[in-house]
Amino acid sequence: MLYFTFAFLVLASLYIGNAALSIFMGILFAYFLKPSSTFFTRRIGTIPLQIGIVLLGATISLPNALNVSSEYLPWISLFVIISFFSGLLLGKILGIHHRIAFLLSSGAAICGGTAMAAMAPIIKAKPQELLVAMTIVFLLNAFAIISFPIVGSYLEMTNFEFGAWSALAIHDTGSVIGSALIFSNESAQVAATLKLGRTIWLIPLILIANWVFNKQAQATKFPRFIIFFMLAIIANTVFNFNEQTINSLQLTSQGFLLLGLFCIGSQFDSVELKSLSWKPLILAMILWAIVIPSAYFLVKYF
Predict the structure, then answer these.
(1) Residue 293 burial (10 A CB sphere; 0-12, 13-18, 19+)
(2) Exposed, middle or buried, 122 (CB in 10 Å: 0-12/13-18/19+)?
């Protein structure tokens, strides 16, 4: 029964393809079936997550990413840096634990759930902390898909302006494309292109986060998946994978990421979850309230 339920929930989470829902299903699995500490989803920990991040690296070609967004890359980079450090500052002001603030800041500044999933094993985030961050970003993304096209139409934004605005202000890539596609096909193309400019910031963020959080660790404890992540990027850059290969790698990467999030959810501890406060939601909403008009001003006047 335990393994059947595990297989069913994992397949369901893979089919639905939502990060927050995957970790939530892992929590349901742990809460109702109470697997032992030796159950394999608890033993493998973040390994599937790390494999997914390495495969994600194989979909990133630095020259291509820079070429498609070179005109706006300086502005995108400035936007990412300011958003990230604003989130950390707000987290400190609100008295939020630094791991949750780091997760939310990286998700808001770069690429939502993907960035948070990449950061979690590096900063040693607890399952409950990742759950809170994922749930908040999921709710904001769902709201963005519905509200952004309405606001864009009311403000009479052009297709290019709306695509750029979505690429800067919405967290997850899927939600960026979904919102822009509702507005127009041209907006979706612009959004997908400019979102690459934010996504490549995942590379320095991973390296910097590892140095900040693990600089006192022994060399033997250096997260090996970061090395493989960089090698995967180099492989894509050197061999210039075709579109079919990239699509396959993206699909496989997503599968491992969702499996990894399910495994993290299976480590759920209801006692620790009750100790978390409402402050992370306030942080995310304040940060988004700053990001949305800033992105609009940048797109409209620069």
Answers:
(1) exposed
(2) buried
pLDDT digits (tens, 9 = 90+) for 232-254: 888 988 888 988 998 899 899 88
Name the strand (E) or helix (H) holding 16.
Answer: helix 2-16
**Sole residue written with tokens 């090996």:** 224
| Total number of domains constituting the chain | 1
**Angle made by CA atoms 265, 280, 119, in degrees to the nearest 5:** 50
Rounded CA Rg of the chain? 19
Which are the contacts of 173, defined by CB distance < 8 A and separation ≥ 6? Answer: 111, 112, 114, 192, 195, 199
Range of 13's domain? 2-36+45-301
Nearest of 258, 235, 237, 253 to residue 22 by alpha carbon: 258
What average pLDDT does the structure give for the chain?
Answer: 84
Please report the sign of the dihedral spanned by the C-alpha atoms of residue 96, residue 281, residue 290, residue 257. Answer: positive
| Cβ count within 10 A of residue 302 | 8
CB–CB of 128/268 below 8 Å?
Answer: yes
| Residues 119, 209 contacting (CB under 8 angstroms) | yes
Q: And the tokens for 296?
A: 């609009």
Kind plus residue range of the DSSP H or E element containing 231: helix 224-239
